[in-house]
Amino acid sequence: IDTQKYFVVSLNNIGGCHGSTGPTTILSKTKKPFGSSFPEVSVIDWVNTQYLLMNYLKIECWEMVAGGSLGGMQALQWAISYPNKIKKAAVIAASPRISSQNIALNEVAREIIRKDENFHDGNYMQNNTKPKKGLKAARMLGHITYLSESNMSKRFGRRLQDPVTKLDEKINYEVENYLQYKGEQFSETFDANSYILMTKAMDGFDPAKKFNGDLVKCFKKIKARLLIASFNSDWLFPKEYSMEIQIAAIKAEIKSSYIELEGDYGHDSFLYYSDEYSTALKSFLENNE
Amino acid sequence: IDTQKYFVVSLNNIGGCHGSTGPTTILSKTKKPFGSSFPEVSVIDWVNTQYLLMNYLKIECWEMVAGGSLGGMQALQWAISYPNKIKKAAVIAASPRISSQNIALNEVAREIIRKDENFHDGNYMQNNTKPKKGLKAARMLGHITYLSESNMSKRFGRRLQDPVTKLDEKINYEVENYLQYKGEQFSETFDANSYILMTKAMDGFDPAKKFNGDLVKCFKKIKARLLIASFNSDWLFPKEYSMEIQIAAIKAEIKSSYIELEGDYGHDSFLYYSDEYSTALKSFLENNE
């Protein structure tokens, strides 16, 4: 995206832990953090808060809303909720609703966090502690699902970890060491309540629900053009999810294109640059036929 | 298997927790359980102990060694280690070596267990406690990988859990409730050290390693006929793994057949009866061309 031509607005979601109000925010009344009392939020809530920001910034209409994964869900929800306020939506590595396998993986991650002895039902800040072990293991699990199997095989295969750089004596393989390292890093910087809240928002996303599960009906009022993109190595949100959006878009007679991109990083591919990916986004943004 | 015609010998593995000597066994010297001091074991160790049992039982030659998953690995190892002591090997839902993704998933499960406050470096019995929370979450994760996505979708989809039968107020979906229940059950009956030890044995299985990774060379001395079977819904040990065994068998010029079976339970399918599965095993066992 050429920032000489377009203003880019990028924001944190309510409930997160890197800027916006979230579970770590101190309530002025009680002088205590929200902790587990922070309300559940949904993708629709996020889009609605973004709409408030849009009005505050006096923006009439977005040229494009773009996002990957949970961000792709928000882009799609924008097109549904505010058809007159958005021209294009780039829905990348997303899904019109996640599968029970995805929900199950999210639930295991949450279970791991909740059962950390330092979680204290979410009120760990008041106890001056942090459920780091739980957050670390949850992220290790997440990390596996974000990567593709082929990528893991190429990077690690079955190579044994060099004993000198082992993070723990119980580790045998490089891939274990890598996950331990990544999980540890994450647990230092992320908030456990935010993690739970965000995965719950992902589980709950289901715009077709109000239309008795009929995605086509739900899409009928969309006016924006859609770009729907998936990555070939993504097994968490495989191309079938994106194709479901595309097929519903065709049936609803709205403008949309679907593209399957090459990507070597599984679900995480949307975070990495490639010429193909960049070209697809750029021409979608600049082409107004 | 017609037990009027064949004697079936079925045994627990050393290191397990349902019979054979394992981490919960009390050492006569110290009057304490092995706990984490129980040595690491490998698939080769298991096959060797089974060979001792074979001699003890005065069995000259197995008609067939059959097993699924870690059991399939043992069947294959039997054919490699003792070519004159086995006529047939049924290698079901197995792999000649597991992928880094599998290792990573196993490591996350172990991490969850080890970080349970009640784990005490594996010496929880001495502390009169049990890392049940960790074992439960590890099993929940395992359970997802054993099931197929289609099976989960059919059984649970995105149905919300009935509030009356909720196991925990934080649960939203049926699939979450089911996993919590299954995990809880497992954590009551299984031993955490055994779980760690068994997944390590699975990670370590790699018969081709001694042959510089050349599976064909490794298979050269096999005399047994092989039946190699995978299940169409198994994503943990997909058919590619079984086909790798079959292709190496063909190149090594040993007798083998490969079959992909229908199964609706993912990796767990090998535990369930189907006519097709039963017929395949039966005709393999009874046909001596």
Describe this structure in words.
The structure is a homodimer of 289-residue chains. Chain A has 289 residues and is of the alpha/beta class. Chain A has a domain at 65-96 and 212-289: Rossmann fold. In chain A, 42% of the residues lie in helices and 8% in strands. In chain A, helix 1 (43-56) crosses helix 2 (70-81), helix 3 runs antiparallel to helix 7 and helix 4 (132-146) crosses helix 6. Chain A is globular. The interface between A and B is large, with 45 and 45 residues.
Which short descriptors sum up this protein?
homoserine O-acetyltransferase activity (chains A, B); Rossmann fold; homodimer; globular; transferase (chains A, B); alpha/beta; 289 residues; four-stranded parallel beta sheet; 8% strand
Summarize the structure.
Chains A, B: One of its GO terms (molecular function) is homoserine O-acetyltransferase activity. The structure is a homodimer of 289-residue chains. By secondary structure, chain A is α/β, with parallel strands linked by helices.
